[in-house]
Amino acid sequence: MALKSFIEVSPDSHFPIQNLPFGIFKPEPASPPRPGVAIGDYVLDLSTISVSGLFEGPFLSGSDCFLQPNLNKFLALGRPAWKEARATLQNLLSGMIIISDEAKLRDNPSLREKSLVPMSKVEMVLPIAIGDYTDFFSSMYHARNCGIMFRGPENAINPNWFQLPIAYHGRSSSIVVSGTEIIRPKGQGHPSGNSPPYFGPSRKLDFELEMAAVVGPGNELGKPVDVNEAGDHIFGLVLMNDWSARDIQAWEYVPLGPFLGKSFGTTISPWIVTLDALEPFACNSPKQDPQPLPYLAEKISKNYDISLEELRNFFCSKRVMIMPSVLRFKSNQLVKKIHVWSQEATSITCKASAPCIAKQEPESYGCLLELTWNGQKSLSLNGATRKFLEDGDEVIFSGCSKGDGYNVGFGTCSGKILPSP
Amino acid sequence: MALKSFIEVSPDSHFPIQNLPFGIFKPEPASPPRPGVAIGDYVLDLSTISVSGLFEGPFLSGSDCFLQPNLNKFLALGRPAWKEARATLQNLLSGMIIISDEAKLRDNPSLREKSLVPMSKVEMVLPIAIGDYTDFFSSMYHARNCGIMFRGPENAINPNWFQLPIAYHGRSSSIVVSGTEIIRPKGQGHPSGNSPPYFGPSRKLDFELEMAAVVGPGNELGKPVDVNEAGDHIFGLVLMNDWSARDIQAWEYVPLGPFLGKSFGTTISPWIVTLDALEPFACNSPKQDPQPLPYLAEKISKNYDISLEELRNFFCSKRVMIMPSVLRFKSNQLVKKIHVWSQEATSITCKASAPCIAKQEPESYGCLLELTWNGQKSLSLNGATRKFLEDGDEVIFSGCSKGDGYNVGFGTCSGKILPSP
Ligand SMILES: [Ca+2]
Ligand SMILES: [Ca+2]
Ligand SMILES: [Mg+2]
Ligand SMILES: [Mg+2]
Ligand code: NI
């Protein structure tokens, strides 16, 4: 029988006791931000649990990591502390177990009152202070499609792509939490070889559906992490929308890579779903092909089976919703792309070697660049058409792994386009 | 007559009262880090000056910005506070002025004893917590030389270079302070078209002489800074060594730009020389050519005349110094390259539009890639030869502007190569 919480959780909730994703929230607009876990329609305030002395394990008792405005201190403690927190919270929230020690929350009305806040009332903020942010070019199909559009079919994928993870650093200070409005950036574009460049609001504003990995303890400068231990550094995953201005990107990216076309805003979902919660959904990766150099060869090559089944794009105009759920992504395996954020000085040689898993079919395309083939065709959606995003459009991603009678879900990652000022 | 401090400052010092660069230091190895300014052979402890109530101006009285372990809070206050701090400190350190108010440090032996620490005894640490770090491709000659080596003479400089600032984000967590040893990185290289890639210690380890701009207040996401106001966001400059593994860089950088070949360590000098201290050395920039789009056109195009005259490369082997000062860079005008670090959420469209000023002559080449033309020829230095850096080599940069009877200098930016483990 599946583990159940004493808190009632609807069967289609993303946040049953099997999930317990971590985030940072404000109970009231003026409250200081604090750590919490999602449980059904509630957020459990970990600062209250911590002050009440209920984290009694060796790693967390006496620690002030849950009295911080972000999760960095908790993440720096590493996997043993993460597992201890999860076990403690599953015990506290369980309704199955009746050992007195584990009913300290359930049978304490005043503590329940203080620590359980309705999710509808809280404001979620960025869960971590992000030191560095790296965007990996993980999906072979995405790489090939972009390559054909930007460089032609002969040079679609550069040979290095098959030999090592290709990535660039993004701007960590422009990462925002789900719900933040995105202002259409102005920048320079260059439509064709002989025309002069222009400056103005981006004409090819796009989204990119991605999964981002939040890296915990990190490593010392000059001490690389072995590829077989890289997983231990990943605390969990969030959904990410890597908003992209294709006209700016196409003109600026040679030879130093994407820059302003990517750094005007990047949205993540607020709840970090831990690898421990995703473990029941682990599955084999495709074989690494070609055989990589030994330093990149994984002994166990693991993916997680997450359906991005609730991905929806709402194209709105003047606040009138034109259509509901229109695009459905079913990718049987993570990960379209893996992002790694490091909080500490790091020089991990290879943080995310997960090969691309995006499917080849157009239905699994993760951005308008691919869906409209760089604006050459229109996407028809319940009567409206789009080549790229228009002002007022809102894009909402969702993702979920379905277990036996429960979900481990990510909630949503959303953002709405505001016009350039 | 030039302004003088009551503290004796030797005429060739980089740190007279005209300079007063800001840094973060520890008076003793176990002390908490705190802000200071360099004056002659001393560091003035700003936390002590602040606690003593000597910052009496409207922006700084009552502020705890000098009781922090980095300069971020001070930098966030913006240019009016920076000017107030400089004026207050010049008054306190002056020996010319005998108004009682301005002798509060000079005539207070106990305060002098507490607040003035011999520079030889302190440990300098990183002056700022760096949120984002951007490397601009500013020097046309460097761009052309790299382009010829990596892509051939036909495609040496991409057309976008002449139209907008080309840049990429670096890894901010691998920026270290002068004196930190640099471990030779391991990575993947690919010597020629038909050979398989290899993994191992970099075979083409290089330095890059750069100037870095430290950005203060920043801007809100989506609210660009006007190019004519960009200077107000720059607090000051430091020397930077953008250590580069050319074999790793050449293989990985298409199409997303430099990544691991640049992110194993980047060294900066510890003292931030303010733009206010450099103002006497301001000079006209070369005319922007071609005429940029209006959003990039500067009304006043200013450079600073800084001689990188003390740049020295010490190639050492087994701690035996093989040669003293060997390379001399005389560039009459800043800036080989401008780096911009932002501490806050930023989406400045153009933070550094300073055109390149590096000279064309080989004597002004700022890296071994250019000096040895990617290892095709050797550099002969007092009997030793180098194509790229060897383990044990130490590279030391220095830079200085010479005024009438005083210098405004940067001190040194140094690092020594340790072997791969
Ligand atoms: Ca992306
Ligand atoms: Ca550089
Ligand atoms: Mg991205
Ligand atoms: Mg650099
Ligand atoms: Ni890049």
TrEMBL record, chains A, B:
The keyword Protein transport does not apply. GO terms for biological process: homogentisate catabolic process; L-phenylalanine catabolic process; L-tyrosine catabolic process. Substrate binds at residues 137, 151, 249, 253. GO terms for molecular function: fumarylacetoacetase activity; metal ion binding. Residues 142-281 form the Fumarylacetoacetase-like C-terminal domain. Keywords: Calcium, Hydrolase, Magnesium, Metal-binding, Phenylalanine catabolism, Tyrosine catabolism. Its cofactor is Mg(2+); Ca(2+). The active site is at residue 142. Ca(2+) binds at residues 135, 208, 210, 242. Pathway: Amino-acid degradation; L-phenylalanine degradation; acetoacetate and fumarate from L-phenylalanine: step 6/6. It catalyses: 4-fumarylacetoacetate + H2O = acetoacetate + fumarate + H(+). Its EC number is 3.7.1.2. Residues 18-127 form the Fumarylacetoacetase N-terminal domain. SUPFAM superfamilies: FAH (SSF56529), Fumarylacetoacetate hydrolase, FAH, N-terminal domain (SSF63433). It holds the Pfam family FAA_hydrolase. InterPro entries: Fumarylacetoacetase, Fumarylacetoacetase-like_C, Fumarylacetoacetase_C_sf, Fumarylacetoacetase_N, Fumarylacetoacetase_N_sf. Mg(2+) binds at residues 242, 262, 266. PANTHER family: FUMARYLACETOACETASE (PTHR43069). NCBIfam families: fum_ac_acetase. Belongs to the FAH family. This is Fumarylacetoacetase.
